[in-house]
Specification:
Length: 188
Amino acid sequence: MSELKLEMRPGLPDPLRVLLQEFPRDAWQSNDRFHGLISFWLDRHMMFRQVLAKMSDLTQQAQQRDIEQRIYASQLSRYARFFVEQMHGHHHMEDEHYFPTLMDLDSRLQRGFAILDSDHHELDEQLHGFTDAANSVIMPRDPVNVVSDTAKFLDVLTRFELILNRHLVDEEELIVPIILKYGPADLG
């Protein structure tokens, strides 16, 4: 299953994309079942992407000294705290409510839910590194190393953006077609 690890996979294996063939991404919004739960859930995913992009932009500004360190630290602190809290809450809701309900709707896709669950564990580990790296620039121990720490944090952000996007795309391509085909079940 190492080829399915988040950092290494180019996407979900074809057998898990069977419903995506029936419900391609470019037709999702025209489906009556799209509005409501699906659009809300996809908006949450977009919010994660936007917050990461905002933190990357701020960090690039800090690295180029286009923003004062105290302003950068204050804004980054606010965005990073929000991001981590929202990620944990979102994954908790998926793991405890959405995934168990949806996985019973189509047994062909149960392996996909195991992959997404594994992703969540990996993302949780990555969030710890993200938090440590963010804290090193928010509350620098050595002001001399702030530029170096900012560069390291930008690397962490860039890597996290890549793996999170891989997870979000795979999750969307597994979950949305299930809901489009079977309805939102009791996800309310």
